[in-house]
């Protein structure tokens, strides 16, 4: 599938639409919510949570098949777009406005991780992670923020930052740098849009068990610690209820209460444990 190519949107079953329209008391009933990186992990959990709360959901992902599948699951709309392609994101915004409506909530969530110390990180890896995690968020906000401003009915912009945004790391310097950048961007935009009734929230999760963390494989950490981390993240962590759904719940809460910066606090205990195990993580 070509980068930036659109997939046909997937219409929801009429029955589910009808049910949604009838339940006007739903938390996000009548709202349009767009999520980038919505085909997997935290983004997919957000899509499901917003849809379950009554929203009309727009799933955007470079993985077009994944976006279509998740959209079909919730009776929403799926679009295949690479967020690093500014023109494609701008075209997406126009198309969504025409086909679904101006989103009330935009979750700029698509991201990639690059692990390895600064001395080992190639220029190509830096370019990739900056392109997706920083430029991808900039393109998304540049495309949608003006629509919300122009419409004049408020709304909420959300950026998936990270605990890495403010926690120095020897193993994820490139990733952490990009996450620090988007945390600051969210706060600047929040200040700028404050008078227009548009809120901006930065969500800062720690370790969540998704494809990104599987891919990172705790590079640069010794084998024994890797094993311990794997055990903590796969067994205890999940058993204690810290899947992507917990982050999605924090996103809905941040949108509803216009939270500026939302660390996903359930992780505090794990963060402490990780820092004891290995100050490098
Ligand atoms: P994930 O890999 O499961 O999901 C990321 C999604 O983004 C994928 O569907 C992927 O196809 C999509 N994507 C990647 N590049 C894209 C591009 N150029 N254009 C459009 N879509 C693209 O990972 P996740 O853990 O769900 O990550 C979601 C966000 O959460 C990321 O911004 C990540 O940095 C952030 N985050 C994750 C964790 C964690 O521990 N998993 C912690 C803090 C923050």
TrEMBL record:
Any GO molecular function = oxidoreductase activity
Specify the domain of life of the species encoding this protein.
Bacteria
Ketoreductase domain mapped to chain residues: 31-206
User: Mind listing the UniProt keywords for this protein, alphabetically?
Assistant: Oxidoreductase
Q: Which family does it belong to?
A: Belongs to the short-chain dehydrogenases/reductases (SDR) family.
Q: What is this protein called?
A: NAD(P)-dependent dehydrogenase (Short-subunit alcohol dehydrogenase family)
Please report the organism this UniProt entry assigns to the protein.
Answer: Crossiella cryophila
- First and last residue shown, out of the full length, are 50 to 330 of 343
